[in-house]
Amino acid sequence: MKAMFRFCMIAVVAVLTSACSLLEIKLESGIEPLPKEQLNMRVFSRDFSTVFYSQVESAANLIERNTDSIPIKSNSLMWKINAEQNLQHTIFQASPTAAMVDTWVFTEQMAQFFESGAGKNVFGEQQQAAIDVSNNLRNQFERTIKNFAASDFKKNQAFVKQYVARYPIKDMSFTRQSAFTDWLEFHKISEFDAVTTFGTVPEVMSDISDRMAMIAEQMPKILGWKAELYALHSNINADEIQRTLTSISDTSAKFQQLMAQSPEMMQSLAVDMRTELTPLLDQLSASTDDKLKQLSVERQALELMVKNERIALEAMVARERAAAAVDLEQISQNAVEVVFQELTKTLKSLILYFVLFLLVVFFAPLGLGVWLGKRMQIKKLNGSKKQIDQKA
Questions:
Q1: Residues of the signal sequence (predicted)?
Q2: Is the Cβ–Cβ distance between 219 and 309 less than 8 Å?
Q3: In 32-93, where do the E strands start and end?
Q4: Contact 122, 64 (CB under 8 A)
């Protein structure tokens, strides 16, 4: 009896252990982490962004320093602004695979734009600097991407060439669309199978942290470049204003010296000069008023632009926070559902094994005793009959 009781207890413990193990596996699978290869893709894309920003800014600054042409200066500023904003859009996508594919396409588009496309003459004699940097970034990205998909590299490279030929960058605004949907069609992959998981909670929070850090680092620089671009195309010429003020100051000093030497002649000359210079002074005053009004309007426009950028940044941060909250709520809800499902299965299994345990421990010995009692009674009756027959 004791041996049977020990056996039943061991069986119950084994069932509980297996149920807990099953629960752990289900909980892990309920929040599926990103595969290691996709995590490596994400890390590489973020590292590449630092190299991209550094090389583009260095080349654009070099071009801007070596020219006096306002269109070329303007193009160098637009290159920094639009290239870096587009790279942020390509890298910070939900799927690491989408980010890799779209970044590859963007580097190829930029190289084609400066080398043989619509932007092959935007920097004049310094065009080669932009070509060299663009080709270097494209080649560097391709060398690294071979490590992630060496078997499909040629096929993906063919897709990139075809897509860039079909959808080239047309101007310095760098207007473009994501190439990930076309890449899925090229590989005949369903959109529903393209993204299977966003990662665990720590992975999602790390992605959001990277986005916020990148925005905080790049946004002040981009706003500064936009302000420079705006000032470059305004009508204010500081050198011309300074030369005019210096000339007026010199003329005033000479008049004062002449008036001290011959007061009578200078008094008559002053009357004539007043008559002659009054229209000129009126015109200068009107022109100065116009310039001040224009400066005020441009200052207000600049303040409005900075305000709009700040509002856009705040809205983007709010959207990212809301999206993160929704993702966390969905993940928590899925985890709770999985826990309760597994607890229900475990309790059902425990009840079943407990009933079997009661049957084995209590009812089995009782039934065995009844059966043995009946057998013994039958044997006694058979023995009594034999003795009666023998006496007879």
A1: 1-23
A2: yes
A3: none
A4: no
